[in-house]
Design brief:
Elements: H1 2-8, H2 11-18, H3 21-31, H4 33-52, E1 73-75, E2 88-89, E3 114-115, E4 120-129, E5 132-141, E6 150-154
Antiparallel strand pairs: 1-4, 2-3, 4-5, 5-6
Helix pairs in contact: 3-4
Length: about 160
């Protein structure tokens, strides 16, 4: 019975069903170019609408800059870290923050250079950088094994 149904179909329908999508599109382009190019234009318009209609008028939330005061006590906390136990790097010179993973580096084992979040610190100095005010903060550790150590951290880590 399936053979009888196939013989009843016109040769065009049978050949169209065996062609791939690319062949069908090329055939449409040859036979009816207005429909073909109209469909491509419609798809491009839809893509443009999706791309350019994103978001509302609400800006992306960012951390508000704090007015840090020299001589005040703060705690170290990285607002960008998901892991609460991730340490904050204390460096000897402002701007010397490493931009690579130094988890296997020997300098990590250096005493009092990786400070745990939540450590109490005293703010002793502020440094401008990159055209922005108070980008780096010099802090003195107030508790723990590293009490009395001084170094520089990013001001965003001083809370």
């Amino acid at each position: 019975m399936a053979d009888e149904q196939n013989t009843n179909q016109s040769p065009d329908v049978a050949s169209a069903s065996s062609k791939g999508l690319t062949a069908s599109l090329l055939e449409l382009k040859e036979n009816n170019p207005k429909v073909f190019f109209g469909a491509i234009g419609g798809i491009l318009i839809l893509v443009a609408i999706v791309v350019f209609s994103g978001g509302g008028s609400n800006p992306i939330p960012t951390a508000a800059p704090k007015n840090l005061v020299i001589g005040q006590k703060y705690t170290l906390k990285n607002p960008n870290a998901y892991e609460v136990a991730s340490p904050i790097r204390l460096v000897t010179v402002p701007g010397a923050i490493a931009a690579y993973d130094d988890s296997e580096d020997e300098t990590k084992k250096e005493a009092c250079r990786q400070i745990q979040q939540g450590t109490a610190v005293l703010l002793t100095e502020l440094q401008d950088a990159y055209g922005k005010k108070n980008v780096f903060s010099k802090v003195k550790i107030e508790d723990g094994d590293c009490k009395g150590s001084e170094g520089w951290v990013l001001s965003i880590d001083v809370q």
